[in-house]
Amino acid sequence: MKTKLQVIVFFVLMIALTSCSNTKLLTMHTWHMDETQIQIGNEQTYYKLNGLNTTPFDYSRVRFVFKKDGTGVYTDGSDRVYSFTWVFDANDKTKLKMTIKYSESKIMTFDYNFVEITNHSFTYTETYSEGGIFVMSQNRYIPFP
Length: 145
Description:
Elements: H1 2-27, E1 30-40, E2 43-48, E3 63-66, E4 71-75, E5 81-88, E6 96-101, E7 107-117, E8 122-130, E9 133-143
Antiparallel strand pairs: 1-2, 1-3, 1-9, 3-4, 4-5, 5-6, 6-7, 7-8, 8-9
Protein backbone atom coordinates (compact mmCIF):
# COMPACT_ATOMS: atom_id res chain seq x y z
CA MET A 1 0.00 0.00 0.00
CA LYS A 2 2.84 2.37 0.87
CA THR A 3 4.42 1.79 -2.57
CA LYS A 4 1.16 2.64 -4.39
CA LEU A 5 0.85 5.85 -2.41
CA GLN A 6 4.46 6.78 -3.21
CA VAL A 7 3.85 6.18 -6.93
CA ILE A 8 0.68 8.31 -6.88
CA VAL A 9 2.44 11.12 -5.00
CA PHE A 10 5.35 10.94 -7.46
CA PHE A 11 3.07 11.30 -10.51
CA VAL A 12 1.07 14.14 -8.96
CA LEU A 13 4.30 16.00 -8.21
CA MET A 14 5.62 15.38 -11.73
CA ILE A 15 2.45 16.79 -13.29
CA ALA A 16 2.55 19.83 -11.01
CA LEU A 17 6.24 20.45 -11.70
CA THR A 18 5.80 20.03 -15.45
CA SER A 19 3.04 22.62 -15.64
CA CYS A 20 4.99 25.07 -13.52
CA SER A 21 8.22 24.51 -15.43
CA ASN A 22 6.51 25.04 -18.82
CA THR A 23 5.36 28.48 -17.72
CA LYS A 24 8.70 29.26 -16.13
CA LEU A 25 10.65 28.15 -19.21
CA LEU A 26 8.34 30.02 -21.56
CA THR A 27 8.58 33.27 -19.62
CA MET A 28 12.31 33.25 -18.93
CA HIS A 29 13.42 33.98 -22.51
CA THR A 30 12.75 36.22 -25.44
CA TRP A 31 12.04 33.64 -28.17
CA HIS A 32 13.53 34.12 -31.64
CA MET A 33 12.28 32.27 -34.75
CA ASP A 34 14.71 29.51 -35.72
CA GLU A 35 12.71 27.44 -38.20
CA THR A 36 9.22 27.17 -39.65
CA GLN A 37 7.39 25.06 -42.23
CA ILE A 38 4.11 26.59 -43.35
CA GLN A 39 1.22 25.16 -45.35
CA ILE A 40 -1.13 27.90 -46.63
CA GLY A 41 -3.88 26.31 -48.66
CA ASN A 42 -1.94 24.28 -51.26
CA GLU A 43 1.31 26.23 -50.94
CA GLN A 44 4.19 25.15 -48.73
CA THR A 45 7.05 27.39 -47.60
CA TYR A 46 10.09 26.99 -45.36
CA TYR A 47 12.37 29.24 -43.31
CA LYS A 48 15.58 28.41 -41.42
CA LEU A 49 17.53 31.07 -39.51
CA ASN A 50 20.72 31.89 -41.45
CA GLY A 51 19.63 29.41 -44.13
CA LEU A 52 16.93 28.76 -46.71
CA ASN A 53 13.90 31.09 -46.86
CA THR A 54 11.18 30.33 -49.41
CA THR A 55 8.66 32.57 -47.61
CA PRO A 56 7.92 36.19 -48.55
CA PHE A 57 8.81 37.28 -44.98
CA ASP A 58 11.95 38.01 -42.98
CA TYR A 59 11.43 35.72 -40.00
CA SER A 60 14.88 36.59 -38.58
CA ARG A 61 13.23 39.52 -36.78
CA VAL A 62 10.28 37.59 -35.31
CA ARG A 63 10.24 37.51 -31.50
CA PHE A 64 7.89 36.46 -28.70
CA VAL A 65 8.11 37.66 -25.10
CA PHE A 66 5.75 35.76 -22.78
CA LYS A 67 5.00 37.36 -19.41
CA LYS A 68 3.95 35.45 -16.29
CA ASP A 69 0.64 37.35 -16.11
CA GLY A 70 -0.61 35.74 -19.36
CA THR A 71 0.25 38.68 -21.61
CA GLY A 72 3.09 39.19 -24.02
CA VAL A 73 4.65 41.04 -26.91
CA TYR A 74 5.02 39.78 -30.48
CA THR A 75 7.41 41.43 -32.95
CA ASP A 76 6.78 40.54 -36.59
CA GLY A 77 9.24 40.38 -39.50
CA SER A 78 8.77 44.10 -40.19
CA ASP A 79 9.59 45.08 -36.58
CA ARG A 80 5.93 45.91 -35.80
CA VAL A 81 5.06 45.15 -32.19
CA TYR A 82 1.72 43.70 -31.05
CA SER A 83 0.33 42.73 -27.66
CA PHE A 84 -1.13 39.30 -27.01
CA THR A 85 -2.63 37.13 -24.30
CA TRP A 86 -1.81 33.48 -23.79
CA VAL A 87 -2.89 30.54 -21.66
CA PHE A 88 -2.04 26.84 -21.43
CA ASP A 89 -4.96 24.43 -21.67
CA ALA A 90 -6.01 23.62 -18.10
CA ASN A 91 -5.91 19.86 -18.76
CA ASP A 92 -3.14 19.60 -21.35
CA LYS A 93 0.08 21.61 -21.07
CA THR A 94 1.00 20.67 -24.64
CA LYS A 95 -1.74 23.03 -25.83
CA LEU A 96 -1.53 26.80 -25.71
CA LYS A 97 -3.98 29.45 -26.93
CA MET A 98 -2.72 32.87 -28.01
CA THR A 99 -4.76 35.90 -29.04
CA ILE A 100 -2.86 38.66 -30.86
CA LYS A 101 -4.30 42.15 -31.24
CA TYR A 102 -3.06 43.43 -34.60
CA SER A 103 -5.46 46.39 -34.52
CA GLU A 104 -8.83 47.33 -33.06
CA SER A 105 -10.53 45.54 -35.95
CA LYS A 106 -8.11 42.60 -36.37
CA ILE A 107 -7.74 40.25 -33.43
CA MET A 108 -6.70 36.66 -34.18
CA THR A 109 -6.64 33.59 -31.96
CA PHE A 110 -4.13 30.83 -32.57
CA ASP A 111 -4.15 27.29 -31.20
CA TYR A 112 -0.68 25.91 -30.53
CA ASN A 113 -0.57 22.13 -30.23
CA PHE A 114 2.21 19.67 -29.42
CA VAL A 115 3.94 22.43 -27.44
CA GLU A 116 7.38 21.44 -26.19
CA ILE A 117 9.50 23.83 -24.16
CA THR A 118 13.05 23.36 -22.96
CA ASN A 119 15.67 25.85 -21.91
CA HIS A 120 16.96 25.72 -25.51
CA SER A 121 13.82 25.67 -27.67
CA PHE A 122 10.09 26.32 -27.89
CA THR A 123 8.30 24.26 -30.55
CA TYR A 124 4.68 23.88 -31.56
CA THR A 125 2.27 23.16 -34.39
CA GLU A 126 -0.11 26.00 -35.19
CA THR A 127 -3.42 26.00 -37.02
CA TYR A 128 -5.73 28.85 -37.94
CA SER A 129 -7.85 30.21 -40.76
CA GLU A 130 -7.23 33.54 -42.42
CA GLY A 131 -9.59 34.84 -45.09
CA GLY A 132 -11.17 31.39 -45.30
CA ILE A 133 -7.84 29.70 -46.06
CA PHE A 134 -6.57 26.99 -43.71
CA VAL A 135 -3.04 27.55 -42.41
CA MET A 136 -0.87 25.03 -40.56
CA SER A 137 2.73 25.47 -39.49
CA GLN A 138 5.42 23.74 -37.46
CA ASN A 139 7.62 26.23 -35.64
CA ARG A 140 10.79 26.22 -33.62
CA TYR A 141 12.01 29.18 -31.56
CA ILE A 142 15.28 29.55 -29.70
CA PRO A 143 16.29 31.98 -26.95
CA PHE A 144 17.32 35.36 -28.32
CA PRO A 145 20.95 36.06 -27.46
